[in-house]
Amino acid sequence: MAHKKITIEQIGSPIRRDFHQRQTLIGLRLNKLHRRATLEDTPAIRGMIEHVKHLVRVVEAQ
């Protein structure tokens, strides 16, 4: 069974952001502008994206 994937891109800087938002970006494998990461589409990942939705955008959901 194939797992769904989601690709996200960082569009905002973590400078002057809360410690937890920085750690969430690192957990999403993002820490520099315009970096992309492809992750499994799980409720945990969706929750992390929701936490930093002002710093990232969903590029593709497969």
Write the SSE topology:
Elements: E1 5-10, H1 19-27, E2 36-40, H2 43-51, E3 56-61
Antiparallel strand pairs: 1-2, 1-3
Features:
27% strand, 29% helix, alpha+beta, Ribosomal Protein L30, Chain: A, 3 strands, three-stranded antiparallel β-sheet, single chain
Shape descriptor: globular
Structural class per helix/strand content? Answer: alpha+beta
Number of strands: 3
Query: Order of strands in the sheet with the most strands?
Result: 2-1-3
Main beta-sheet strand count, sense and barrel state: 3 strands, antiparallel
Which homologous superfamily in CATH is the superfamily? Ribosomal protein L30/L7
Order of helices and strands: EHEHE
- CATH architecture call: 2-Layer Sandwich
Total discrete domains: 1
Low confidence ranges: none
Mean pLDDT: 93
Number of helices: 2
Helix content: 25-40%
Q: Kindly, what is the distance between the CA atoms of the first and last residues, rounded to a whole number of angstroms?
A: 14 Å
- Assign the CATH class: Alpha Beta
From the alpha carbons, calculate the radius of gyration and give it in angstroms. Answer: 11 Å
Account of the 3D structure:
By secondary structure, the protein is α+β, with helices and mostly antiparallel strands. Helix content is 29%, strand content 27%. It has a single domain, classed as Ribosomal protein L30/L7 (Ribosomal Protein L30, Chain: A, 2-Layer Sandwich), CATH 3.30.1390. It contains 2 helices and 3 strands.
